[in-house]
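Saturday, quiet lab. Running sequence design on the structure tokens for the scaffold JK sent over.
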């Protein structure tokens, strides 16, 4: 997980969110079923494109790539459930990009006294420690521990994927250290830094490895 910056609100939300929220709440307050077409108005191509851009086409939680439509879930940071925060259903500041697994794992779990780490507001580096391909909550950090456990930031498939990525980075680091030609060495370092940039998968773990090795 890395720090993200929220971009400009898509025009489709700015123009329609008040009307959509009014319709949604009127139906909910009357205990009437909410049509799927209304309930998912936020699931719009313009919104998806904006979230994909600011999220670097990665899940806001696990940093896996979510470029394909089937892998793209719009996450409500504060749950949109009727008994939670339905008024935030179409609020752009409450939306993010998540992979299906992280989105389902988080579900509607929410405790206002111990909220999940929100990379748009919190700097994950202040809450998590990376040991190789494992991401752990810093000792005593309840919010990070809840996020780690509930979203399952160390589930087997993620550990395997991070491990493979770290092997690639490690190979470059070893090439860097054994290289004696200054120009080639500088070129390898440039490549390494590019490989752990913010837009790359699992950049939090990969950058931690590089900072400890170069």
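Result came back. Writing it out in full:
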């Amino acid at each position: 997980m890395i720090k993200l910056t929220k971009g400009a609100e898509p025009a489709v939300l700015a123009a329609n969110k008040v009307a959509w929220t009014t319709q949604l709440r009127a139906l909910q307050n009357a205990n009437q079923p909410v049509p799927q077409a209304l309930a998912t108005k936020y699931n719009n191509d313009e919104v998806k494109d904006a979230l994909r851009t600011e999220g670097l086409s990665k899940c806001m939680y696990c940093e896996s790539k979510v470029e394909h439509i089937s892998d793209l879930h719009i996450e409500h940071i504060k749950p949109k459930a009727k008994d939670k925060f339905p008024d935030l259903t179409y609020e752009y500041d409450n939306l993010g990009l998540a992979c299906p697994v992280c989105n389902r794992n988080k579900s509607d779990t929410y405790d206002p006294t111990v909220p999940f780490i929100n990379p748009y507001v919190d700097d994950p580096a202040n809450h998590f420690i990376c040991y190789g391909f494992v991401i752990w909550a810093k000792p005593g950090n309840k919010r990070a521990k809840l996020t780690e456990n509930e979203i399952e930031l160390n589930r087997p498939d993620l550990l395997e994927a991070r491990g493979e990525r770290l092997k690639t980075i490690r190979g470059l680091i070893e090439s860097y250290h054994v290289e004696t030609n200054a120009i080639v060495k500088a070129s390898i370092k440039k490549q390494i830094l590019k490989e752990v940039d913010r837009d790359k998968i699992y950049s939090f773990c990969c950058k931690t490895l590089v900072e400890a090795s170069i």
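Notes for JK: Helices lie at 11-29, 36-39, 45-54, 100-106, 142-151, 156-178, 182-195, 203-213. The longest strand covers residues 73-76. Ask whether to fix the surface positions before the next round.
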